């Protein structure tokens, strides 16, 4: 512990990190300039709030994932976690009429799935990639058989406020995003536990030898990632006003992409929650721009792919030159 | 050795087909694409309903990973080993599953193809409703409702799938008949509700006046409705699938219409043709169901849950 902490701190205080964030902010700003120049609709309050609201959802999923990836792990089950959490929460809200019970169910279910992931990775020593990949299938199976091809829809207006409502003219999910940005950054950078997460990712053996309770921290991180998936599932429910078995499809890969574009290394130990916010923002801006500029449907995945590869490549190059 | 085995199996199949008259109790293997889309659930229920009235048995094969080509291929192999009397088949991909149909043909198991037409193979019959005509009919209904003028948006499904290509082609052909209607944008939302919501939120920003939205399936139509509601805007919206949720929204006046494929009827007819073929009765070679646009004047018939619906008479549908 006494050894690991200074190592992690020093790594984190190095200028390259600030430089990485600056590059990324610059990239996001550049995209904004290009979009503002090519579409009148882009630089309106309505559209910017709209982009941030969409960013919020992606960020919430990706923020929990960031901590997992910081430990050099991966959580491939976030999308199917969202699906099961959303479907269970939807049934509870429908049956009880209480939004609060739905919240408990959604976040509880998500956290429980994360806890199981954590146990699989630590106690059974299954590589996280495999454990959460298996979990992906298990959860889809449970969700599909539970839903049986049905759709649950129509939630109370009070619950829907959480996803589609406004507070002082700003969409609610943006506040949720702000809270978790501060909370996540504070945890990762300002707490001992957070620093231990970096230490585990940088070198698990060294971390263990210096007294970091590696297994407990890993379980914590996976549980947190699961809980965030549960929270995101509630925002999705509130936004689309319905739940069906395939609600989590196409969510995992964009979340991983946001983390990577945000500068967190898949090899662990490097990255920030704030970076992930910028990553989520860049991805959302690009999608928003493609819609506004009416880029042909066939080209859209290609553009997203190029941006992910480009972001990681720029990272490697700039890191090599600054270190 | 292999050839002997092959001729033995075909001999056995021959023996089976000339064996004691098939009074009843035939096993029909039904292949659908996934557990998630209510359409395929309706197909399965229709197959069960038809089999029940004909005293036959149904075994369902559904890939655990939705629309998985390798999984359906291996499920076909499993089914051939278990030798059902006949197969009712929806390929997850109309080209990639051709080898599977060839294997079924080689094993001498009669196969009825429904919904998505397989590119080649020996079929007892094909039963389907084509995506193009449903897209065309549903889009025409919307363009008529908005008075053949105004601005519309198309929400596309998964790029590269046959269903999406055909439905969108139908939409576009309906638009061509209406020179006073302007297509503002055609953007992908991959058949997903959340993506449709977000794409529409983006498009609402750049288009102050949207009169109609043509969505290639119901979940995207519902996502678009949510986006409109969130922005305090109104537009006529149509979807495709005739899902339960769409019917409820048509009833409450929020959704204009939904094009219907009637998975239930396709399941019924496919299974009935398979059984009647086994019983050496004459069966139609092809049934193309007429596109039905569910809207406020005819939605009542669709409120009955599929589990309680009756299969139509094969003779009535064949002459349609």
- Strand/helix succession of chain A: HHHHHHEHEEHHHHEHHH
Q: Into how many domains do the coordinates of chain A divide?
A: 1
User: At the first level of CATH, what is the class of the largest domain in chain B?
Assistant: Alpha Beta
- Could you say which structural class the secondary elements and strand pairing of chain B correspond to? alpha/beta
Number of helices of chain A: 14
* Global mean pLDDT of chain A: 88
How many domains of chain B? The number is 2
Broad shape of chain A: globular
What structural category arises from helix and sheet content of chain A? mainly alpha
Instruction: Describe the main β-sheet of chain B briefly.
Output: 6 strands, parallel
Number of DSSP helices of chain B?
11
- For the largest beta sheet of chain B, what order do the strands appear in spatially? 2-1-3-4-5-11
In the CATH hierarchy, the architecture of chain A is: Orthogonal Bundle
Distance between the termini of chain B: 49 Å
Oligomer: heterodimer
Percent of residues in β-strands of chain B: 15-25%
Mean pLDDT of chain B, to the nearest integer, reads 88
- Name the CATH homologous superfamily of the largest domain in chain B: Response regulator
Assigned CATH architecture of the largest domain in chain B: 3-Layer(aba) Sandwich
């Amino acid at each position: 512990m006494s050894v690991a902490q200074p190592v992690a701190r020093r790594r984190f205080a190095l200028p390259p990190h600030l430089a990485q964030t600056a590059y990324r902010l610059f990239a996001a700003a550049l995209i904004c300039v290009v979009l503002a120049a090519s579409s009148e609709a882009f630089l309106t309050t309505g559209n910017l709030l709209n982009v941030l609201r969409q960013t919020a959802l992606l960020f919430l999923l990706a923020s929990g994932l960031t901590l997992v990836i910081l430990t050099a792990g991966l959580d491939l089950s976030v999308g199917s976690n969202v699906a099961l959490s959303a479907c269970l929460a939807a049934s509870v809200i429908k049956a009880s009429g209480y939004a609060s019970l739905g919240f408990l169910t959604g976040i509880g279910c998500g956290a429980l799935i994360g806890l199981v992931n954590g146990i699989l990775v630590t106690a059974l020593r299954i590589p996280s990639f495999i454990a959460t990949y298996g979990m992906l299938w298990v959860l889809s199976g449970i969700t599909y058989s539970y839903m049986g091809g049905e759709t649950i829809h129509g939630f109370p207006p009070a619950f829907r406020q959480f996803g589609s409502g406004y507070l002082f003219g700003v969409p609610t999910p943006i506040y949720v995003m702000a809270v978790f940005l501060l909370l996540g950054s504070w945890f990762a950078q300002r707490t001992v536990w957070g620093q231990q997460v970096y230490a585990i990712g940088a070198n698990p053996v060294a971390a263990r030898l210096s007294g970091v309770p590696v297994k407990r921290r890993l379980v914590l991180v996976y549980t947190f990632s699961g809980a965030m998936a549960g929270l995101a599932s509630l925002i999705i429910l509130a936004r689309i006003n319905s739940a069906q078995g395939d609600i989590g499809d196409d969510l995992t890969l964009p979340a991983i992409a946001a983390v990577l574009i945000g500068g967190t290394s898949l090899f662990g130990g490097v990255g920030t929650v704030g970076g992930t916010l910028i990553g989520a923002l860049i991805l959302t801006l690009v999608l928003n721009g493609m819609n506004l500029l009416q880029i042909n449907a066939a080209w859209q995945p290609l553009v997203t792919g190029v941006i992910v590869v480009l972001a990681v490549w720029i990272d490697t190059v700039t890191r090599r030159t600054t270190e | 050795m292999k050839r002997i085995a092959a001729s033995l199996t075909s001999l056995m199949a021959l023996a089976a087909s000339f064996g004691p008259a098939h009074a009843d109790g035939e096993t029909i293997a039904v292949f659908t694409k996934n557990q998630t889309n209510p359409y395929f659930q309706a197909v399965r229920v229709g197959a069960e309903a038809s089999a029940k009235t004909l005293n036959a048995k149904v075994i369902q094969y559904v890939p655990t990973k939705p629309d998985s080509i390798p999984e359906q291929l291996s499920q076909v192999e499993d089914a051939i080993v278990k030798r059902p009397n006949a197969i009712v088949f929806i390929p997850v991909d109309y080209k990639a599953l051709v080898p599977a149909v060839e294997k079924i043909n080689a094993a001498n198991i009669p196969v009825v193809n429904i919904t998505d037409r397989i590119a080649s193979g020996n079929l007892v019959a094909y039963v389907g409703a084509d995506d193009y005509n449903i897209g065309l009919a549903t889009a025409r209904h919307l363009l008529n409702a908005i008075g053949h003028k105004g601005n519309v948006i198309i929400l596309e499904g998964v790029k590269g799938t046959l269903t999406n290509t055909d439905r969108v082609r139908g939409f576009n052909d309906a638009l061509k008949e209406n020179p006073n209607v302007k297509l503002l944008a055609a953007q992908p939302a991959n058949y997903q509700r959340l993506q449709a919501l977000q794409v529409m939120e983006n498009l609402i920003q750049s288009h102050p006046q949207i009169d109609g939205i043509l969505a290639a399936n119901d979940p995207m139509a519902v996502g678009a409705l949510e986006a409109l509601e969130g922005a305090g805007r109104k537009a006529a919206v149509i979807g495709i699938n005739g899902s339960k949720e769409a019917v409820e929204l048509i009833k409450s006046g929020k959704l204009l219409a939904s094009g219907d494929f009637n998975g239930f009827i396709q399941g019924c007819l496919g299974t009935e043709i398979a059984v009647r073929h086994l019983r050496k009765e004459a069966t139609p070679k092809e049934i193309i169901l007429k596109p039905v646009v569910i809207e406020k004047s005819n939605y009542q018939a669709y409120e009955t849950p599929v589990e309680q619906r009756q299969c139509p008479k094969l003779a009535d549908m064949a002459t349609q």
